[in-house]
Amino acid sequence: MDFNRQSRPNAIVMSRLVSILAVAYTRSGNFNEAQSLNEQLLRVQKEAFGDRHLDTMATMMNLGSTYYQQGRYHEALNIYEEVVKLHRELQGERHIDTISASSNLALTYAQVGRHKEALALKEEVLKLQKETLGERHPDTIAASNNLAISFYHLGRYEEAAILNESVLKLRKEILGERHPGTIVSMSNLASVYSRLERHEEALALGEEVLRLRKDILGDRHPETIVASSNLSNTYNDLGRYQEALALQEEVLKLRAEVLGGRHPDTIVALNNLANTYVTLERYEEALALREEVLKFRREVLGDRHPNTTWAMLSLAMSYEYFQRYSEALELVNIADTNLVETLGTTHPTYKRCVD
Predict the structure, then answer these.
(1) How far apart are CA 83 and CA 68, in angstroms?
(2) pTM of the entire structure?
(3) 182 contacts 205 by C-beta, under 8 angstroms
(4) Segment 93-143, tens digit of pLDDT
(5) Which of 37, 43, 55, 85 is a Cys-bridge partner for 22, taking CB atoms 3.0 to 4.6 Å apart?
């Protein structure tokens, strides 16, 4: 791309064409290609148009989305915070681009374990979407879906179920059963049903989600792999451990190939497989995986992230089984402090740990 030889109007047209290609890479799951293209485009746009040009800001958003999809949440967070600041200054808080950027920032707060900040921003986004677009607009429904996810992360499962059921009903009516947004809502509702121990309902939704993902996206798409992972958890909940094991081993293999060994979703797959090994009394294999999970989560997410804390507790249980009590106690003490500070003493996860 040589913008220096283009007139400004031609340079803008060229940059938008390249941006469309980068978005297509992201949507098809080719995140490395999308990242490379967006990073090149952003450098060129900053030089040609400046940091505060709307096209430059759009590319920043796209690059943040690519980092997010790659599990590089802290890099995505840095970009989204800057983009939200720029949109608020240039377009105001109620502009659709500002609201969209705020929504992405809220989702990223959740991924780095800042759930209370995520909740506050999602509530603000939903309020603005309702006022500017109306209650049945797809973007307003998406904001309701995102708020339901925060309720889930904060252990407010009944509220999450009510909101998810409403979102799924609206998406089926407005978007249709095979729309990606509808499928996401089905998946989210299945996860909430699992937390509420409504396992048969979770199973029916999870199997339908996986069928649709395979039909529309193919077996190796990241969203299809997520659906397989979620279904394996439901199999575990129902005591169908061998089916869960087979699916989890497939998920781990695909995630390592498609996303890489250090991606947060690959680490989740390692963790799920370790838990199933424990259920099947394959304790030494579980211990080895849990040590690997904690190592990766500390490196990728940091010591204070809730998922890292949960990995500490899981590993402590394995250490206890092998009578490595001092190592177990050290991890439990760190985890207890982290849980109180990040989730609070009323969160269901903290209560389960204390019990």
Answers:
(1) 15
(2) 0.73
(3) no
(4) 999 999 999 999 999 999 998 999 999 999 999 999 999 999 999 999 999
(5) 37
